Amino acid sequence: MKNRVPVHRILIAFLLLPITVLVLVPLVLHTYLPGNFTQSMLAGWLIKLFAFLLGLTGLWLLYWTNFLFARFGRGTLAPWNPPEKLIMRGPYRYMRQPMITVVLSVLLGELMFMGSWASFFWLILFPALNMAYIPLVEEKALIKRFGDDYIRYKKAVPGWVPKFHPWNDEGDQ
């Protein structure tokens, strides 16, 4: 089908971005930082179970948001192959950055599971980097690509914290 995003583009974007943030960076931190930064500070099976469930929920939501990008936006989460259409459905009706929020929830699950300072530092550094990148780069590109539609959407829908009622493009401006 002509309008479909090739599967290899979706896989490359997913492997390079979320896998790097959620797997490779924590692995590098836990491999190369001294033991006092990587030893577990948290114990208990209940904490680990909650962390595991939080991580699974986050991964499912990450799949869903990526599906929406590919299916309805005809693009990927990667800046080199962005969606052609503005996505304003599913979790995007409640917040503009559900992928970042989901990644943060998975990183929180990793922190709870591993309980290390290395995980804590990465949980702090990742959103700090995105708080700079999103307004300086990503939002400017979205305004350029989608114009008034994105500006109206940005005014109505919060960035990282979901609102209680979904945005309705027709009357919820």
Compute the number of strand runs: 0
By CATH reckoning, the class would read Mainly Alpha
Runs with pLDDT <50, length 5+? none
The total number of structural domains is 1
Helix and strand element order: HHHHHHH
Shape: globular
Please state the CA-atom Rg, rounded to the nearest Å: 17 Å
SS field, number of helical segments: 7
Secondary structural class: mainly alpha
CATH topology: Four Helix Bundle (Hemerythrin (Met), subunit A)
Distance between the termini: 35 Å
The CATH architecture is Up-down Bundle
Average pLDDT for all residues: 88
State the helical fraction: 55-70%
Beta-strand percentage? under 5%
Q: Main beta sheet, described?
A: none
Topology at a glance:
Blueprint: H1 7-16, H2 18-32, H3 35-38, H4 45-71, H5 98-114, H6 117-146, H7 148-156
Architecture overview:
With 173 residues, this protein is mainly alpha-helical. The protein has one domain: Four Helix Bundle (Hemerythrin (Met), subunit A). Helix content is 65%, strand content 0%. The protein has seven helices and no strands. The chain has helices at 7-16, 18-32, 35-38, 45-71, 98-114, 117-146, 148-156. The longest helix has 30 residues, at 117-146. It is globular. It starts with 6 loop residues before the first helix and ends in a 17-residue tail after the last helix.
